[in-house]
Amino acid sequence: MSRSAHPAGPRHADVMSDGHYLAPADDLNVLDEKVWSRTVTRDEHGALTVGGLTVSRLAEEFGTPAYFLDETDFRARCRAWSDAFGPGADVFYAGKAFLSRAVVRWLKEEGLNLDVCSGGELATALDAGMPAERIAFHGNNKTVEEIERAVAAGVGRIVLDSFQEIVRVAHIAQGLGKRQRVQIRVTVGVEAHTHEFIATAHEDQKFGIALAGGQAAEAVRRALTLDGLELVGIHSHIGSQIFDMAGFEVSARRVVQLLAEVRDEHGVELPEIDLGGGLGIAYTSEDDPREPHEIAKSLGDIVTRECEAAGLATPRISVEPGRAIVGPTAFTLYEVGTVKPLEGLRTYVSVDGGMSDNIRTALYDAEYSVALASRTSDAEPMLVRVVGKHCESGDIVVKDAYLPSDLAPGDLIAVPATGAYCRSMASNYNHALRPPVVAVRDGEARVIVRRETEEDLLRLDVG
Fold first, then answer.
1. Do 403 and 32 contact (CB within 8 A), yes or no?
2. What percent of the chain has a predicted confidence (pLDDT) above 70?
3. Phi and psi dihedrals of 371, rounded to 5?
4. What is the pLDDT of residues 95-104, one digit of tens each?
5. What is the mean pLDDT of residues 160-167?
6. Which has the closest alpha carbon to 94: 126, 71, 117?
7. Please, what is the Cα angle at 37 between 34 and 40, to 5 degrees?
């Protein structure tokens, strides 16, 4: 059966708390391809399926809440990014979005590199067999122990984030008899049009070394003169969930200007430029993300044009998609517990998860979609707020959406585009048990991160 199903009744629009109007879709049973993974559809009975398996069967076997990751879609997105940038560039998957040993193996098989930003992510990457030379290590405050492990393992690059870290990495590399490849992360003063907590290239924030005031130029001087370091490039990351390429154009121009200054002062043309990640995905039908080939062409054209103007050889470009790969590949499946209408406002739909498995709505005011998953319905749409079971009024999964008015306890609902940052940022608030991640492919499902148990919680409580 296709992604569409039965028609529904007449539609109206509701005014949201922020003043904008939200109208229900023409058919609540239709699945918008922008926000669902490639193999998600509805079967002949109207139930949601992924990889050929119905959500009812998956819920029976694995329970709810649970993240279901479409492995076919994940691998296809890896190939799309790799093909778009080609052999002359490097694609680093940003592991902070979601990382597991299975994901590392998929990345290795699909030819992508991996970006990590903690000792735990590095341990996962190495344990799962990612070649160290294909790993980049980020972070604004890497510990001595983390740096020692990274240098000893032979990671392909360490991204330097402060003057102290330049000295720290050089000292550790010298002590280990190594010459570590490094990049310097610069903040380029670009205001990305995104939430302030995920905008990372304006000066007033914790990441990087500012171009303003000559700080980045001074960082280059120090990195070039210290034994133990091989400075190979400049790194810039302007934020997350970005749709407008204008910020990348400004960032690339300023980074290339720095490369020209380095050449003029030191007689060195640095061979690499990393423009970071942060490209947005569709969480709702209103989002309009760019395809990898569009992004690759746009970034390539920007860097080539700026380098030609500066008389520089075009450096090797790196990008770091994380959300753009894993975000659309997964959905979270919940069971409805209560349905509570508030006259003249909306209906509150409480599910068996919440902010412990998806903090993004509370943290970033993030928007999500939701669909009735266990069946279709011709009932009239009702405005709902999907909330969790935690002791917080801000425990919201989906702020404003429409679901059929015959929704009842025991129904399964699914929230798409939860592959990025949901499991990574999951917590044990209220001693909730973090959900499993289940990979689905070609009619088979397997747990890649198991559900936590009460024994897991109690094992850590040594009091």
1. no
2. 92
3. -140, 145
4. 999 999 999 9
5. 97
6. 117
7. 110
Answer for the pair 93, 107: CB distance below 8 angstroms, yes or no. Answer: yes
- What sign for the dihedral angle of Cα 382, 385, 388, 392? negative
Torsion of CA 265, 266, 268, 270, to 10 degrees: -70
pLDDT category of residue 7 using cuts at 50, 70 and 90: very low
Q: 230 and 236 in contact (C-beta within 8 Å)? A: no
Mean pLDDT of the chain: 92
To the nearest 10°, the Cα dihedral for 399, 405, 411, 415? -30
Residues 138-147 have a mean pLDDT of: 97
Task: Name the token pair of 121.
Answer: 């992510």
How many Cβ atoms sit within 10 Å of the Cβ of residue 294? 13
Look at residues 67, 84, 92 and name the one whose alpha carbon lies nearest to residue 417. 67
Which amino acid does the sequence have at 277? G
* Residues whose CB falls within 8 Å of the CB of residue 458, separated by 6 or more in sequence, listed in order: none
| Residues that are catalytic | 391
Average pLDDT over every residue of 420-445? 98
In this prediction, residue 246 carries a pLDDT of 83
Instruction: Name residue 106's amino acid.
Output: W
**Two structure tokens written together for 395:** 């425990």
Contact of 224 with 164, CB cutoff 8 Å: no
Residue 206 is predicted with a pLDDT of 84
Rounded distance between C-alpha atoms, residue 337 and residue 353, angstroms: 10
Question: Quick one: tokens of 345?
Answer: 């406002």
pLDDT tens by residue, 283-299: 999 999 999 999 999 99
Closest CA to 9 of 412, 406, 415: 406
Q: Please report the pLDDT score of residue 199 as a whole number.
A: 43
The answer to whether the beta carbons of residues 312 and 397 sit under 8 Å apart is: no
pLDDT in the model for residue 250: 87
Token pair 């799962």 is at which residue? 128
Token digits of residue 25: 């879709």
On the question of pLDDT at 160 being above 50, the answer is: yes
